[in-house]
Amino acid sequence: MDVTSDLQILRLSVQVAALATLGGLVPAIAVAVLLARRRFWGHTVVNALVHLPLVLPPVVTGFLLLRIFGTRGPVGAWLADTFGIVLAFRWTGAVVAAAVMGFPLMVRAIRSSIEGVDPRLEEAAATLGASPAWRLLTITLPLAVPGILAGAILGFAKALGEFGATITFVSNIPGETQTLALAIYALTQTPGGDAGVWRLAALSVAVSLVALIAAEALARRTAVRR
Amino acid sequence: MTTLDVAIRHRLERIAIDVALAAGAGLTAIVGPSGAGKTTLLHAIAGLFRPDDGRVVLGDEVLVDTAHGVFVPPDRRRIGYVTQDSRLFPHLTVRQNLAYGHWFTRDADRRLTVDAAIAMLDLDGLLARRPARLSGGERQRVALGRALATSPRLLLLDEPLAAVDVGRRQEILPYLDRLRQELALPTVYVTHALDEVRARAESVVTLDEGRIVSIVPGGSQLG
Fold first, then answer.
1. B3 neighbors B24 (Cβ within 8 angstroms)
2. What CATH class is the domain A3-225?
3. Cα–Cα distance, A183 to B32 (Å, whole number)
4. What are the sequence ranges of the domains in chain A?
């Protein structure tokens, strides 16, 4: 282990976590809106499915991802045949694993902030001529921004630290799927790996602190806007 | 002349309302004790719920006809609705609040510009502020202006003065008179303090337990 590979691991981790957060955000907002504002048949089922990755042992989630998105899984085979996209044992698969694991946390935070928006404001917007889609875009979501930010931060944090589902789905391949958590685990299994563990642990702390401080600053900015 | 015709029946948890009412131009006051169904009636006219049974007709447009499955959603009714709690959008400035509904109004339907609403309600000095930094009376004026900027065909006022200090109501009532005189906008005014509007009303409708108890001419009829 040297500094170059440390930085490469860091870059991969941040890349995986950022893409997982960005990719998960819009679906998470959509599901949160659905759960917060719509009553429909199957509400409970959708809610349970969304929460599944939070409750299942991460290894099980990883195993299921492998069976579904693996090259011989139903979705994985289709993706490979149609688009030539392979997820299993690739860094793109690590993004999927991190996104799935962070998804329930994002949905929960966003949902509760949407539920905190006064529905009477949406009614007022309706009488002013705004259709349901416009009410969502101009009233509900802007007022839920703090919760959306909180959800994104939680999702990013979860993605950055994700271990079980990732190692099961995409394994621990240096330079391809080896994120900070996986690299630290590999080093703890290696005689004389202690120095490397400390270096990567310090990097993890630094990244987490930067993310938290950035989040705090963002939250303060949106609070001032009110 | 725009005429409003309402005949609805609807069961809620606490009350069942059964009301038939016609309102012409001018101001129709609706009074009655709390829980009489006044707000529910306004919600039905605004389209905020689907009544179990009945019809709502505004001018020559059928807004609700349960027998024929007609229900025009609130965003296509062009009915201004001002409540006692203003419901201004907290993340927008006063100017943005005023422009909000105007932006959704089709060009062909626009009769009043945002600037005209600002002038009519003397909102010039408030435009850059957020709702949190307005007094109760100012909020109500902005809410009125916001509703007017959509060029509504009908104005619904639900206790618009209830959240304003008694001493400050005179800061709003003249504006209501001005709207009435300059825009000739049919208005349904819900209140439990009839004194506010008796002199201004064409007719006074009294509601109790979801039913109309009486309809009498208001002060503007008696002269």
1. yes
2. mainly alpha
3. 73
4. 3-225
The reply to whether residue A125 touches residue B47, judged by beta carbons under 8 angstroms, is no
Q: Which of B48, B104, B130 sits opposite A129 (nearest CB)?
A: B104
Query: Structure pTM?
Result: 0.86
Give the bridge partners for B62, in sequence order. B57
DSSP-assigned beta bridge partners for residue B9? B18, B53
Quick: pLDDT tens for A122-181. 999 999 999 999 999 999 999 999 899 989 998 999 999 999 999 999 999 998 999 999
Q: How far apart are CA A175 and CA A168, in angstroms?
A: 17
Give the residue with greater pLDDT, B12 vs B133.
B133
Give the CA angle between residues B103, B104, B109 to the nearest 5°: 95
Residues of chain B whose beta carbon is less than 8 angstroms from a beta carbon of chain A are 46-48, 73-81, 83, 85, 87, 89-91, 100-101, 104-105, 130, 132, 146-147, 150
The residue in chain B having the minimum alpha-carbon distance to the alpha carbon of residue A225 is B91
| Shortest Cα distance, chain A CAs vs residue B135, angstroms | 17
- 3-class DSSP assignment, residue A41: coil
